[in-house]
Amino acid sequence: MLRGLYTAGAGMIAQQRKQEMLTNNMSNIETPGYKADQASMRKFPNMLIQALGTQQNGPGSSVVGELTTGVYLQEQTPNFRQGDMQETGNNTDIALLQALVPVNEAGEEAMLAYEVQNEAGEVRYSRNGNFAVDAQGFLTTPAGYYVQGTDGEPINTGNENFRVDEAGNVLGAEDELLGQINIAVIPDPVQLVKEGQGLLNYEGEEEIVTAVNNAEVTYQLQQGFVERSNVDAQQTMTEMMNAMRTFEANQKMLQAYDQSLERAVNDIGRIS
């Protein structure tokens, strides 16, 4: 009976964590470039139950059968599918549209991303093109991180009166070249880890290369547009309802086990 308590409890914990993940997806449905998380549920290994004191199947015991020991949320992986384009008219908004990217040995497509610099000076990646220009005239992410150019340095536009062509060249008011936005090719996107503020940290072993002047990559940048979140609101709401119902079913099972234990301890103990 105690094993049943653990199984129901594990199911409740797994569904609670999934619900938290889905809630976070819904809260970021309007965040430009946000990639929805997906849950991978796994079950614990089954236990083989045997009845002791019998001789039906070997000395001293007989096989009763297998007992499931619950499930758990193994991992959360982002879905890097391209989001829809939304026109904003803002000069500092730049959407990244990938058309052709390499495919790795596992058959998975690479992902393109902006290369940015965090507060520690480390390279990170982002799909949020809702940029801004800071007081020093540098192009930054919404959180204030510098957008990197192909020369590995932040891009100084001076002000918001600049133009970006499809290749990422940043041009000033008099069409002078101010720099070129670097686009990184992430060969194994599943190795990207979310760090908050729209930043992604790559923990893979394959080398990251630039998409600029790369014959294997086709992309374009659209100024005045942003890439919307790829969260599917209808599907996410359906999954949230299913997670809640599964949680409630495990909760009722847990309550039933608790009531059975109470009767075993109190009523049977009183009769004896």
From TrEMBL:
Keywords of this entry: Bacterial flagellum, Cell projection, Cilium, Flagellum
Coiled-coil segments on the chain, per record: none
GO terms, biological process: bacterial-type flagellum-dependent swarming motility
Pfam families: Flg_bb_rod, Flg_bbr_C, LlgE_F_G_D1
Flagellar basal body rod protein N-terminal domain mapped to chain residues: 5-35
Domain Flagellar hook protein FlgE/F/G-like D1: start-end pairs: 115-170
Subcellular compartments: Bacterial flagellum basal body
Domain named Flagellar basal-body/hook protein C-terminal: residues: 222-266
Listed SUPFAM superfamilies: Flagellar hook protein flgE
GO cellular component, one term: bacterial-type flagellum basal body
Keyword flag Cell membrane: no
Lineage: superkingdom: Bacteria
InterPro entries: Flag_bb_rod_N, Flagellar_basal_body_rod_CS, Flagellar_FlgE/F/G, Flg_bb/hook_C_dom, FlgE/F/G-like, LlgE_F_G-like_D1
Transmembrane segments: none
NCBIfam families: FlgEFG_subfam
Entry's family note: Belongs to the flagella basal body rod proteins family.
Protein name: Flagellar basal-body rod protein FlgG
Organism of origin: Alkalicoccus daliensis
Lineage: Bacteria, Bacillati, Bacillota, Bacilli, Bacillales
